[in-house]
Write a structure and sequence with these properties.
This protein has 64 residues and is mostly helical. Helices cover 69% and strands 0% of the residues. The model has no long low-confidence stretch (mean pLDDT 93).
Length: 64
């Protein structure tokens, strides 16, 4: 992904400016989706994102 660094910077800025304090994982996903929606151009890219998220979670929770 050629915009990798730009996407990370945009995510960081966006998440630092989230105003509400109470929320759940769906709210986190929504905020991330707001940024990533500008970069995901097709279903395959969306599937790759979901695959990456699943992989990262599996590394953390020990199911990998």
């Amino acid at each position: 992904m050629s915009n990798f660094k730009n996407i990370l910077e945009e995510l960081k800025k966006h998440l630092e400016n989230v105003k509400y304090k109470d929320g759940d994982l769906s709210d986190v996903g929504n905020e991330i989706g707001i940024v990533l929606g500008n970069y995901i151009e097709n279903e395959q890219e969306f599937k790759e994102l979901v695959t990456g998220i699943r992989h990262g979670i599996s590394l953390t929770n020990g199911t990998h």
